[in-house]
């Protein structure tokens, strides 16, 4: 996402600042992340934050867009696998690896922010809806790739629809995210992913 700024040139790296904002939003949620905490983590002043990113809502949307492009890049790569069985494997196993990185909070920012059903401010509700739309867009892309595998590759869906399989994969991935945030080890979560994959690729 290109950010247009006014006034003097920025004295900080926008992408680094967004990565730090991601960590704060991820840990604290949208409503829980204060501007003081955000700007402190980003090592910029509030004036610089507003000039570079706009308001807190705009900062979140830019941070989340970067999160999707970087932290969830595995999902895009998975869709590019030549065989549908490999799409499934990459989607789940690479998700486990991404959700248990040492340099990020464990779990999934999308699940934490978008899955919250606690009382939120109006802005918090809007952010949750924004995240939900992005998740649905990802689910639509996964569904389309499964349809392609069925129609071109002839992959046997065992009587299930592409949409139901996409929902299954997303649900397993989301469950893995919750357990990763709970502290479950990567090896155990990869075993969970392998069990789920047997239901899809075993003959």
Helix amount, in percent? over 70%
Assembly state of the chains shown: single chain
Q: Helix tally?
A: 10
Would you give the CATH topology of the largest domain?
Tetracycline Repressor, domain 2
Structural class: mainly alpha
Query: Distance between the terminal alpha carbons, to the nearest Å?
Result: 43 Å
Order of helices and strands: HHHHHHHHHH
**CATH H-tier superfamily of the largest domain:** Tetracycline Repressor, domain 2
What is the count of distinct domains? Answer: 2
Number of strands: 0
- Low-pLDDT stretches are 1-9
Specify the CATH architecture of the largest domain.
Orthogonal Bundle
The CATH class label of the largest domain is Mainly Alpha
> What is the makeup of the main sheet?
none
Radius of gyration: 19 Å
GO molecular function: DNA binding
Keywords: DNA-binding, Transcription, Transcription regulation
Domain HTH tetR-type: 18-62
Organism: Conyzicola lurida
